[in-house]
Amino acid sequence: MRPIPLWLKSGRVQTGLVILFVLSCVAIFAPYLAPNDPNEQNLLSILTPPLWSAGADPMFPLGTDSLGRCILSRLIFGTRVALTVAFSAAIGAMVIGAILAHIAGYFGGWVDWLIGRVVEIWLSFPPVILSLILMVGLGTGLRNVVLAIILVDWTRFCRVLRSEVIVLRRRDYVAAAQLVGFSHWRTITREILPGTLPLLITLMSLEMGVAVIVEAVLSFVGMSVGSETPAWGQMIADARQNIYEAPFNLIAPIFAIFIAVFGFNILGDGLRRTLDTRLTQTERT
Predict the structure, then answer these.
(1) What are the chain's domains?
(2) What is the reported pLDDT for 22?
(3) For the chain, which has fewer Cβ within 10 Å, the N-terminal or C-terminal residue?
Protein backbone atom coordinates (compact mmCIF):
# COMPACT_ATOMS: atom_id res chain seq x y z
CA MET A 1 0.00 0.00 0.00
CA ARG A 2 1.43 3.32 -1.10
CA PRO A 3 1.85 6.03 1.57
CA ILE A 4 -0.33 9.12 1.35
CA PRO A 5 1.52 11.99 -0.40
CA LEU A 6 2.77 14.72 1.94
CA TRP A 7 0.84 17.45 0.17
CA LEU A 8 -2.42 15.55 0.64
CA LYS A 9 -1.92 15.48 4.41
CA SER A 10 -2.08 19.26 4.63
CA GLY A 11 -5.25 20.60 6.22
CA ARG A 12 -5.24 23.57 3.87
CA VAL A 13 -5.02 21.32 0.81
CA GLN A 14 -7.79 19.07 2.11
CA THR A 15 -10.06 22.03 2.82
CA GLY A 16 -9.42 23.52 -0.62
CA LEU A 17 -10.02 20.18 -2.36
CA VAL A 18 -13.28 19.64 -0.49
CA ILE A 19 -14.56 23.10 -1.47
CA LEU A 20 -13.44 22.58 -5.06
CA PHE A 21 -15.08 19.13 -5.17
CA VAL A 22 -18.39 20.49 -3.84
CA LEU A 23 -18.39 23.39 -6.30
CA SER A 24 -17.56 21.04 -9.17
CA CYS A 25 -20.42 18.71 -8.23
CA VAL A 26 -22.80 21.69 -8.03
CA ALA A 27 -21.69 22.88 -11.47
CA ILE A 28 -21.91 19.44 -13.10
CA PHE A 29 -25.27 18.47 -11.62
CA ALA A 30 -26.81 21.96 -11.73
CA PRO A 31 -29.91 20.91 -13.72
CA TYR A 32 -30.68 18.25 -11.10
CA LEU A 33 -29.90 20.36 -8.03
CA ALA A 34 -31.67 23.58 -9.01
CA PRO A 35 -35.27 23.61 -7.74
CA ASN A 36 -36.44 25.93 -10.54
CA ASP A 37 -35.48 27.26 -13.95
CA PRO A 38 -32.94 30.03 -13.19
CA ASN A 39 -34.43 32.31 -15.86
CA GLU A 40 -38.10 31.66 -15.19
CA GLN A 41 -39.85 34.82 -14.02
CA ASN A 42 -42.71 34.68 -11.52
CA LEU A 43 -44.07 38.20 -11.22
CA LEU A 44 -46.47 37.06 -8.50
CA SER A 45 -43.52 36.13 -6.23
CA ILE A 46 -41.25 39.16 -6.45
CA LEU A 47 -38.63 39.61 -3.71
CA THR A 48 -39.78 36.58 -1.75
CA PRO A 49 -37.68 36.20 1.45
CA PRO A 50 -35.65 33.05 2.29
CA LEU A 51 -37.25 30.10 4.06
CA TRP A 52 -36.17 31.20 7.55
CA SER A 53 -38.00 34.52 7.20
CA ALA A 54 -41.69 35.31 7.52
CA GLY A 55 -43.65 35.16 4.28
CA ALA A 56 -41.30 32.68 2.59
CA ASP A 57 -42.37 30.37 -0.23
CA PRO A 58 -41.16 26.72 -0.08
CA MET A 59 -40.76 26.75 -3.84
CA PHE A 60 -37.94 29.30 -3.48
CA PRO A 61 -35.63 28.23 -0.59
CA LEU A 62 -33.43 31.34 -0.82
CA GLY A 63 -36.14 33.67 -2.08
CA THR A 64 -36.53 35.46 -5.40
CA ASP A 65 -35.17 38.59 -7.05
CA SER A 66 -36.95 41.64 -8.44
CA LEU A 67 -38.18 39.61 -11.43
CA GLY A 68 -39.36 36.64 -9.40
CA ARG A 69 -36.42 34.39 -10.37
CA CYS A 70 -35.20 31.74 -7.93
CA ILE A 71 -32.04 32.91 -6.14
CA LEU A 72 -30.87 29.39 -5.29
CA SER A 73 -31.25 28.18 -8.88
CA ARG A 74 -29.34 31.18 -10.20
CA LEU A 75 -26.57 30.61 -7.64
CA ILE A 76 -26.26 26.97 -8.67
CA PHE A 77 -26.11 27.71 -12.40
CA GLY A 78 -23.77 30.64 -11.75
CA THR A 79 -21.26 28.13 -10.38
CA ARG A 80 -20.90 26.75 -13.91
CA VAL A 81 -19.84 30.11 -15.28
CA ALA A 82 -17.41 30.78 -12.42
CA LEU A 83 -15.67 27.39 -12.62
CA THR A 84 -15.57 27.36 -16.43
CA VAL A 85 -13.81 30.72 -16.44
CA ALA A 86 -11.57 29.73 -13.51
CA PHE A 87 -10.24 26.53 -15.07
CA SER A 88 -10.08 27.70 -18.69
CA ALA A 89 -8.46 31.07 -17.96
CA ALA A 90 -5.98 29.63 -15.45
CA ILE A 91 -4.85 26.89 -17.85
CA GLY A 92 -4.50 29.32 -20.75
CA ALA A 93 -2.56 31.89 -18.72
CA MET A 94 -0.39 29.14 -17.26
CA VAL A 95 0.56 27.73 -20.67
CA ILE A 96 1.50 31.10 -22.18
CA GLY A 97 3.25 32.42 -19.08
CA ALA A 98 5.13 29.18 -18.37
CA ILE A 99 6.42 28.83 -21.93
CA LEU A 100 7.71 32.40 -22.08
CA ALA A 101 9.16 32.18 -18.55
CA HIS A 102 11.15 29.04 -19.34
CA ILE A 103 12.40 30.50 -22.61
CA ALA A 104 13.45 33.78 -20.96
CA GLY A 105 15.03 32.18 -17.90
CA TYR A 106 16.84 29.44 -19.78
CA PHE A 107 18.28 31.36 -22.72
CA GLY A 108 18.79 34.74 -21.03
CA GLY A 109 20.45 37.52 -23.03
CA TRP A 110 18.35 39.49 -25.49
CA VAL A 111 15.56 36.92 -25.34
CA ASP A 112 15.19 37.47 -21.60
CA TRP A 113 15.44 41.25 -22.06
CA LEU A 114 12.74 41.32 -24.76
CA ILE A 115 10.28 39.14 -22.84
CA GLY A 116 10.99 41.10 -19.65
CA ARG A 117 10.19 44.43 -21.34
CA VAL A 118 6.91 43.04 -22.72
CA VAL A 119 5.94 41.83 -19.25
CA GLU A 120 6.78 45.21 -17.68
CA ILE A 121 4.75 47.10 -20.27
CA TRP A 122 1.81 44.72 -19.82
CA LEU A 123 1.98 45.02 -16.02
CA SER A 124 1.86 48.82 -16.21
CA PHE A 125 -1.87 48.57 -16.98
CA PRO A 126 -4.26 47.89 -14.06
CA PRO A 127 -5.54 44.31 -14.59
CA VAL A 128 -9.26 45.05 -14.22
CA ILE A 129 -9.07 48.16 -16.44
CA LEU A 130 -7.14 46.22 -19.08
CA SER A 131 -9.75 43.43 -18.93
CA LEU A 132 -12.53 45.97 -19.48
CA ILE A 133 -10.67 47.49 -22.44
CA LEU A 134 -10.17 44.05 -23.99
CA MET A 135 -13.84 43.19 -23.47
CA VAL A 136 -14.85 46.37 -25.29
CA GLY A 137 -12.77 45.25 -28.27
CA LEU A 138 -13.61 41.55 -28.11
CA GLY A 139 -17.29 41.83 -27.23
CA THR A 140 -19.30 40.00 -24.60
CA GLY A 141 -19.44 36.22 -24.24
CA LEU A 142 -17.90 33.51 -22.11
CA ARG A 143 -15.10 32.76 -24.58
CA ASN A 144 -14.10 36.40 -24.77
CA VAL A 145 -14.08 36.65 -20.96
CA VAL A 146 -11.68 33.70 -20.80
CA LEU A 147 -9.52 35.18 -23.55
CA ALA A 148 -9.38 38.58 -21.85
CA ILE A 149 -8.28 37.06 -18.53
CA ILE A 150 -5.63 34.96 -20.30
CA LEU A 151 -4.24 38.01 -22.11
CA VAL A 152 -4.06 39.94 -18.83
CA ASP A 153 -2.85 37.33 -16.34
CA TRP A 154 -0.20 35.39 -18.25
CA THR A 155 2.31 37.93 -16.91
CA ARG A 156 1.75 36.65 -13.34
CA PHE A 157 3.13 33.26 -14.32
CA CYS A 158 5.90 34.60 -16.52
CA ARG A 159 7.37 37.00 -13.96
CA VAL A 160 7.41 34.58 -11.03
CA LEU A 161 8.48 31.47 -12.95
CA ARG A 162 11.29 33.28 -14.77
CA SER A 163 13.13 33.87 -11.50
CA GLU A 164 12.76 30.20 -10.55
CA VAL A 165 14.04 29.07 -13.97
CA ILE A 166 17.13 31.28 -13.62
CA VAL A 167 17.92 29.65 -10.26
CA LEU A 168 17.45 26.13 -11.61
CA ARG A 169 19.45 26.83 -14.75
CA ARG A 170 22.56 27.34 -12.59
CA ARG A 171 22.26 23.94 -10.92
CA ASP A 172 24.95 21.33 -11.56
CA TYR A 173 22.58 18.74 -12.99
CA VAL A 174 21.47 21.20 -15.69
CA ALA A 175 25.09 21.88 -16.63
CA ALA A 176 25.73 18.12 -16.67
CA ALA A 177 22.77 17.59 -19.01
CA GLN A 178 24.12 20.22 -21.38
CA LEU A 179 27.57 18.61 -21.33
CA VAL A 180 26.11 15.22 -22.11
CA GLY A 181 24.52 16.70 -25.21
CA PHE A 182 20.88 17.20 -24.23
CA SER A 183 19.01 19.49 -26.58
CA HIS A 184 17.53 22.72 -25.24
CA TRP A 185 14.03 21.23 -25.38
CA ARG A 186 15.07 18.11 -23.49
CA THR A 187 16.98 20.09 -20.88
CA ILE A 188 14.01 22.34 -20.20
CA THR A 189 11.40 19.58 -20.09
CA ARG A 190 13.47 16.92 -18.29
CA GLU A 191 15.65 18.96 -15.92
CA ILE A 192 14.08 22.38 -15.33
CA LEU A 193 10.33 21.83 -15.67
CA PRO A 194 10.12 19.26 -12.83
CA GLY A 195 11.71 21.84 -10.53
CA THR A 196 9.26 24.59 -11.47
CA LEU A 197 6.19 22.35 -11.50
CA PRO A 198 5.31 22.80 -7.77
CA LEU A 199 5.38 26.58 -8.14
CA LEU A 200 3.42 26.30 -11.38
CA ILE A 201 0.66 24.27 -9.72
CA THR A 202 0.47 26.75 -6.85
CA LEU A 203 0.23 29.75 -9.16
CA MET A 204 -2.47 28.03 -11.18
CA SER A 205 -4.65 27.40 -8.14
CA LEU A 206 -4.26 31.03 -7.05
CA GLU A 207 -5.04 32.24 -10.57
CA MET A 208 -8.36 30.39 -10.47
CA GLY A 209 -9.46 32.58 -7.57
CA VAL A 210 -8.36 35.70 -9.44
CA ALA A 211 -10.32 34.58 -12.51
CA VAL A 212 -13.49 34.15 -10.45
CA ILE A 213 -13.19 37.73 -9.17
CA VAL A 214 -12.45 39.19 -12.61
CA GLU A 215 -15.41 37.36 -14.16
CA ALA A 216 -17.65 38.65 -11.36
CA VAL A 217 -16.48 42.21 -12.02
CA LEU A 218 -17.06 41.87 -15.76
CA SER A 219 -20.52 40.36 -15.32
CA PHE A 220 -21.32 43.06 -12.75
CA VAL A 221 -20.81 45.77 -15.38
CA GLY A 222 -22.62 43.73 -18.03
CA MET A 223 -19.55 42.79 -20.09
CA SER A 224 -19.43 39.05 -19.42
CA VAL A 225 -22.11 36.51 -20.31
CA GLY A 226 -25.53 37.49 -21.64
CA SER A 227 -28.54 38.17 -19.48
CA GLU A 228 -29.91 34.69 -20.24
CA THR A 229 -26.94 33.07 -18.44
CA PRO A 230 -26.90 33.40 -14.63
CA ALA A 231 -23.65 34.74 -13.19
CA TRP A 232 -22.74 35.79 -9.66
CA GLY A 233 -21.59 39.28 -10.62
CA GLN A 234 -24.79 39.78 -12.58
CA MET A 235 -26.81 38.77 -9.52
CA ILE A 236 -24.98 41.38 -7.43
CA ALA A 237 -25.76 44.06 -10.01
CA ASP A 238 -29.45 43.11 -10.07
CA ALA A 239 -29.68 43.05 -6.25
CA ARG A 240 -28.40 46.61 -5.81
CA GLN A 241 -31.77 48.09 -6.69
CA ASN A 242 -33.51 46.30 -3.80
CA ILE A 243 -30.73 46.11 -1.24
CA TYR A 244 -32.95 47.34 1.61
CA GLU A 245 -36.05 45.29 0.72
CA ALA A 246 -34.11 42.04 0.05
CA PRO A 247 -30.54 42.25 1.40
CA PHE A 248 -30.02 38.48 1.13
CA ASN A 249 -30.21 38.74 -2.67
CA LEU A 250 -26.95 40.68 -2.45
CA ILE A 251 -25.38 38.61 0.32
CA ALA A 252 -25.91 35.23 -1.39
CA PRO A 253 -23.76 35.81 -4.55
CA ILE A 254 -21.12 37.67 -2.54
CA PHE A 255 -20.87 34.71 -0.18
CA ALA A 256 -20.63 32.31 -3.15
CA ILE A 257 -17.73 34.31 -4.60
CA PHE A 258 -16.06 34.37 -1.19
CA ILE A 259 -16.31 30.59 -0.78
CA ALA A 260 -14.94 29.91 -4.27
CA VAL A 261 -12.01 32.32 -3.93
CA PHE A 262 -11.30 31.10 -0.40
CA GLY A 263 -11.20 27.49 -1.62
CA PHE A 264 -8.77 28.24 -4.44
CA ASN A 265 -6.55 30.44 -2.26
CA ILE A 266 -6.30 28.02 0.66
CA LEU A 267 -5.58 25.19 -1.80
CA GLY A 268 -2.80 27.24 -3.39
CA ASP A 269 -1.36 28.19 -0.02
CA GLY A 270 -1.40 24.58 1.13
CA LEU A 271 0.29 23.38 -2.05
CA ARG A 272 2.92 26.09 -1.73
CA ARG A 273 3.72 25.06 1.84
CA THR A 274 3.98 21.34 1.05
CA LEU A 275 5.46 21.31 -2.46
CA ASP A 276 8.06 24.06 -2.04
CA THR A 277 11.11 22.28 -0.63
CA ARG A 278 12.61 25.52 0.64
CA LEU A 279 9.59 26.20 2.85
CA THR A 280 9.46 22.63 4.17
CA GLN A 281 13.16 22.70 5.03
CA THR A 282 12.73 26.04 6.84
CA GLU A 283 9.79 24.72 8.88
CA ARG A 284 11.77 21.60 9.86
CA THR A 285 14.74 23.61 11.02
Answers:
(1) 64-284 (1.10.3720.10)
(2) 94
(3) N
